[in-house]
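Per reviewer request, we include the raw input and output of the structure prediction for the construct analysed in the revised manuscript.
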Amino acid sequence: MTTAADYAEFAAREAHAVSPAYERLARAVSRDREMLALLGTLPPAKRQPNLLFGAVRFLGGPVEDPAAFRDYTLGNWPAVEAEMRARTTQTNEAGRCAVLLPVLAALPQPLALLEVGASAGLCLYPDRYAYRYGDHLVGSGEPVLDCAATGMAPPARVPDVVWRAGLDLNPLDVTDPADVAWLDALVWPEHVHRRARLRAAAAVAAAEPPLLARGDLVDDLPALAARAPAGATLVIFHTSVLYQVAPSRREAFAEVVGGLPGRWIANEAVDVLPYPALPDPPDGPLCNVLALDGTPLAWTRSHGQAIVWFA
C-alpha cells in the first residue's frame, strides 16, 4: 500500500467520527505530493499518520487546520523528521485496562504482570484504577475508566498484583516530563478526557514506577519472565502492539510465549494474529480481538471504551 493510500485509509477507517482534525489532516496529506515526497524519505515504519501528527503536536505545531499544519511541517521539516526518526507511536492508553480486567480478575490470584510493548507502563496498574461498566463501579481511585460492556457480567473486583514489569524497545520514563509530553502529544486533539486520564494514570505510575526493561519481544522476553516471583500467576499481555512487528516475528513471539509458564492475553487488531472463525465484529470503528492463551473471547474498542463478549 502506498503512503497516500495509508493516509486515506487512516482518515476513512480510524479517524472518521473519532477525530475530525486528524481526518482532515490525513485526507490532505494523502493528496499532497510535496508532503508525500518528504514522508517517502523515511523508513516505511516511520511514515504513519499518528507518528507525523504526534511529532508536530509535540513540537507545538498546529493540527486543527490542514493549511497551517502543512506550512508548519514543511517549514520545520528537519525538526519534525528528527522526532519521527527518534520516536515511535507508543500510545499508553490506561483505558485499555477496562477490557483486560474481566480476564485478569478471573485468573488465579495473585498476579505477576508482564506487558510487552509497555511504553511507560501505565497499563501495568489495573489494580490501582477504578472502572465503570454502565452503572456498575469496580475498584476505587483515579482515573475512573468507563467501558460499555455487552454479553458479560462486569467483574466483581480488581486483581491482586504483586509484581509488574514491562518490555519495550524504547521504554518511556513516567517521571521524565519530556516522555510524558510525548505521550500527551499522541492523544488525539479532541480527546480531552483521554488527556486527563493519561495525567491521572501517570501520577499513579510515578508514585511507584514499574520495572521497565529495554529489549526485544522475542529475544529478551524469557529472561524478564524468569524474574517474576514464584507463587503468582504470570500474565504476559499486550494491546495494539504486534501490528508494528513483522509477521515472522509475531509467529516467533507466539511460540516463545507458548513455552513460558504463564497465561497470555492478547488484545490486537483482527488481522494481526491467526484465529479460527470469528463472529462478525460490531458496527462502527475498527475493533481488536481480546484473547486468552490463543482463544478469542471478545471484541474490544481500541482505547478500552467498549467490550463485546462472544466466548
